[in-house]
Design brief:
The structure is a homodimer of 241-residue chains. Chain A is of the alpha+beta class and 241 residues long. Chain A contains six helices and ten strands. The first copy, chain A, folds into two domains: 145 residues, Nucleoside Triphosphate Pyrophosphohydrolase (Alpha-Beta Complex); 66 residues, Arc Repressor Mutant, subunit A (Orthogonal Bundle). Helix content of chain A is 31%, strand content 27%. In chain A, the strands form two sheets. In chain A, strands 1, 2, 3, 4, 5, 6 and 7 form a seven-stranded mixed sheet that branches. Chain A has a three-stranded antiparallel sheet with strand order 8-10-9. Chain A binds a DNA duplex (30 and 30 nucleotides) through α5.
DNA sequence: CCTATTTGTGTATTTTTAACACAAAGGTAA
DNA sequence: TTACCTTTGTGTTAAAAATACACAAATAGG
């Protein structure tokens, strides 16, 4: 009788709910050759063993959601991100076949240099980048989550200068142009685009020339100036491509 | 021994986490007299007993997050919303003094006619509207949550026609103008504003005149045409004030 | 019927966006 | 070393959109 009460207490009073809390991280990377890509892991365990999935995992009791994201990403892929923001919380009761799992999805960007570095570790058989237009079949409701993430990235680069988080610290202007063109899926007029971007005054043009990558006239390298950006932002500047 | 195992199983295997899941609803209402207002409840129990707070509560195992929001709103305030979208998930480990509570905040709008109707029920001693610029002291981290919600509403009415969800089905044009002016906190040129809004073709001008509210020339009533809006949206129309 | 209040309406100016083409720099291969 | 290929850099003009601005007409109330 006492035992039953104890179990009842733990199960129904202290824990009235049966919902587990997880985070997922949709991480975008970019290179001129590979285009915009998303980081996925191959699931090592059931359900969906062997399927590709968005990296993520359960939140520990003491850590913040952002800490959970960075820990899981480190464990599963070894990747360090340069930009992170919350995307959306997916909470349908039956989105996981085992038990109810609530997932707070985050949306991350990695710099071009991190793009190649990938380390497969314990939790995942494999981790790899997939071009965002050629994604494999995905576990759970991850396909839908990715669509939300892609829409968010697409919408966001228009009115916030987060595209720079996908490039190296120093980059040729054409990389930025190519990134926007790929993501927005439309051609971009080089002159008009440059005119507009430079008009914000948040890009420093360096004296260094970009490396020669085969053929073509080498261009100057540029660098995003976050300090200037923040200052201008305070003064009411409005970034919009 | 068997008993310990059972408890261990329930507590540590089936339930490795100690996080409770709640939803909160930031509900906006509007009337020309009262301006943009937010629906709050007075807490009946500790912690923060007697403080004003955002309505919300724990998610039941079987219900979706949206269902939880609507149920809690019904229980606590009796208000029915006309627009609901997810706002943000607040997950800091210590945001509630009792135990870790994750809150998925939603953002809702009610039509002007619902604005007055308020019913205080069991869970809250009281429920009331507060002008969004004159908010009382709030429980938990609710102040911060409200700020996020206000920013979201402000940002959103610019590029999505959700302002109509705050008005009656039929409204005089000046109501819309006043709503935008209040929310964006800047004067609006009546002629330019009307020119732009009407250019989208999503407002039907009715033959009825608005009631006389004291003095002034009565104007026509207008009505948001959602069907037309959805059709135009598909054809690539871009709403932006 | 006079006054106060609110609605309705058009044009001119400025600003922003969009369209558009050719010369210069370097790499590579003949 | 030269000819060719690829890529970068640059300015003007036309069209579209945003902004600034003022007065007459309709009603309510005194």
């Amino acid at each position: 009788m006492f035992v039953s009460f104890k179990i009842y207490y733990l199960y129904h009073v202290k824990r009235t709910q049966n919902i587990e809390v997880a985070v997922d991280a949709i991480v975008f990377g970019y290179s001129k050759e590979e285009g915009v890509s998303i980081l996925l892991i191959k699931r090592k365990y059931d359900p969906f063993k062997g399927s590709w999935a968005i990296p993520g995992g359960f939140v520990l009791d003491h850590e913040s959601l952002e800490e959970a994201v960075e820990r899981e990403l480190q464990e599963e892929t070894g990747v360090k991100i340069s930009y992170l923001e919350q995307l959306y919380t997916f909470g349908k009761p039956d989105r996981d076949p085992r038990t109810r799992i609530l997932s707070i999805a985050y949306f991350g960007l990695v710099k071009s240099n991190q793009f190649e570095k990938l380390k497969a570790t314990t939790d995942a058989e494999d981790a790899a980048w997939f071009n965002f237009k050629r994604l494999p079949k995905l576990a759970f409701d991850h396909k839908m989550i990715l669509n939300v993430a892609i829409e968010r990235l697409r919408g966001k680069i228009i009115y916030q200068p987060i595209g720079f988080e996908l490039l190296d610290k120093k980059f040729p202007f054409s990389d930025l142009e190519h990134l926007y063109s790929t993501l927005l899926d439309r051609p971009i007029d080089r002159r008009n685009f440059k005119k507009k971007v430079m008009s914000f005054g948040i890009l420093d043009e360096l004296d260094e020339k970009a490396k020669s990558n085969g053929a073509g006239r080498p261009g100057n390298l540029f660098q995003f100036n976050k300090t200037t950006y923040n200052r201008l932002l305070k003064n009411g500047m409005h970034f919009e491509i």
